[in-house]
């Protein structure tokens, strides 16, 4: 599998060197509120659900958005480890990323405007099984952290623009 990753990324790198304009990509998601606080999101051909635990008004049928953020960070870190290790010929037997976020519900519930509604702190631990030299793995970890897109997104401010579109629903004729 690492050879496939290496070949795929090598081909992409060469293609982008030949035509840097192809490096600009966009990703899109659509999320639709369903019953209660359950949301169905669609990304490309994939559908997945969000919900909240019962204490937050949900049915606890799926992870909530902030849990997906943690999972996305862990998944991105693991993928970047595989990608870089494959390109550099570093053997990784396994990569596990444990993430934890601390959130004060007073911010989310609007009880205290001095408390942010999102995570106050996120920590992660990467557990690597490998017989490679420790120094090589530590360098790899620094490189992963430097280019992991989700780590970049959650650790540095980026511009976010929102727009509200209101659609009027025709009243039912009695």
Automatic annotation (TrEMBL):
InterPro entries: KH_dom-like_a/b, OsmC/Ohr_fam, OsmC/Ohr_hydroprdx_reductase, OsmC/Ohrsf
Signal peptide residues on this chain, from the entry's feature table: none
Origin organism lineage: Bacteria, Pseudomonadati, Bacteroidota, Sphingobacteriia, Sphingobacteriales
Protein name per the record: Putative OsmC-like protein
